[in-house]
Predict the structure of NAD(+) kinase.
Amino acid sequence: MRTVAKALRRVAEGKAAAQAEAAEWKRKYELERARNQRYKSEEVASEGCSCCSASSSRQLVVHTETEQAKCCGNHGICSHEVLADEVANPNSDPACKMVARKASFKLSWGCNGNKSGQHKHEVVSFEKGDITTAERSSKQILLKWESPPKTVFIVAKPNSTSVHALCVEMIRWLKEHKKIDVLVEPRVREELLKESFYFDFVQTWQDDEEIKHLHTKVDLVITLGGDGTVLWAASLFKGPVPPVVPFSLGSLGFLTPFQSEHYRESLEAILKGPFSITLRHRLQCHVVRDSAKDELEFEEPILVLNEVTIDRGISSYLTYLECYCDSSFVTCVQGDGLIISTTSGSTAYSLAAGGSMVHPQVPAILFTPICPHSLSFRPLILPEYVALRVQVPFNSRGQAWASFDGKDRKQLSAGDALICSMAPWPVPTACLVDSTTDFLRSIHEGLHWNLRKTQSFDGPRD
Ligand SMILES: NC(=O)c1ccc[n+]([C@@H]2O[C@H](COP(=O)([O-])OP(=O)(O)OC[C@H]3O[C@@H](n4cnc5c(N)ncnc54)[C@H](O)[C@@H]3O)[C@@H](O)[C@H]2O)c1
Ligand SMILES: Nc1ncnc2c1ncn2[C@@H]1O[C@H](COP(=O)(O)OP(=O)(O)OP(=O)(O)O)[C@@H](O)[C@H]1O
């Protein structure tokens, strides 16, 4: 219990750190606004400001440092740290090639036609091009490049001829028509070089240590596969995630709105911008062993985009789990297990277990039992600022198993606990239209939600 209390404190410290960062960003924003007001009388009166012409849509437009001198200050946030250039590395080894400067971008929040509504400035920090959130945005978010993206990371589903063919064609197009550098996983680079030495320019990494710095080298991630490829791509980023463009080459396509047949048009639009994004929040999960003496014995936290599942594995006994929300006891789960899901995962395992479908922008955590041995156990939807703790009691007959986005199963013995809270690094996925339209399309086309033959007009009348 002592180590779990420490774990909860650590989660709270993590949240506090994210909120402190957001508060610092908000302080900068207030300072910039004050500075913009001072500039207003000097320059904008004569020159005007490009963003003001967009003010009819009450867009919040974020300016770069260079624009702040003439920014009108009506609704501009001018805090934007210039990204550090990376030193070009003469080493020809593709694993060591450093990419040029990372593209900078700005985020704006649309008020979607609500011209009169007072616009609440969401606090989303995107220093150095890394998106970190302390609060969920309640408006559609637009991403606008301030400098053209230079490096794209392509994640391709393995063992698929169609995916490989598209990957080859897309890399050629990006290099020859868009002059964009491409980075792929080591497996993919080997496959490309077997095909032709032309692909020697494609970059990759040598060891997993480099994966930790992927977000500093990549401007955009493209996934070629199904929903699982999006999950896989997200799992490669243990911190900030660059914008992801998911192309659909799977069966359902909940997370993959872009059609591969039109990849040129889609990528032209994305590379030019601005484009809508959905900040898909992730859960950060810690396994705390009963044997842990102090917090240094924590295992590597795991980030999930869909859900973490705690189930009975191959045991024939019911799982028996004690659940806490912050420090309040929630319930004991006796059944096949429990799913703690994000809103992005609400249409996946949680839905199959009877949970609700929730729009990905809703700030929530889903608490869904798997085949509970109790008639009254119904799924819950909790706020996203809570920390959930699931513990295997000492009087449990069997063990439990935790799996993260359906992968990496970890055994939980008596006294072990799993602690989950919202991670400050969402997966920013590009929208085909916008967050809501894409979500509704996915449940209509992926699930055929409420698809019913229409009742004929003829028949009795009131
Ligand atoms: N009984 C179930 O429904 C069940 C069981 C196990 C895992 N899953 C889901 O599979 C996910 C892993 O996906 P995978 O592709 O790596 O494994 P997988 O290849 O076994 O695919 C499982 C199915 O889940 C779908 N899926 C994945 N994420 C989804 C989402 N956010 N919304 C709607 N459908 C989604 C995929 O399209 C695929 O059809 C897990 O995160 C879990 O949500 C579902
Ligand atoms: N680049 C990758 N490297 C390793 N594994 C991957 C990679 N991309 C995807 N996978 C794994 O392959 C499995 C299948 O991927 P994906 O779900 O995208 O294809 P699918 O199952 O054919 O499509 P759908 O999920 O829509 O049915 C997933 O479990 C995923 O974790």
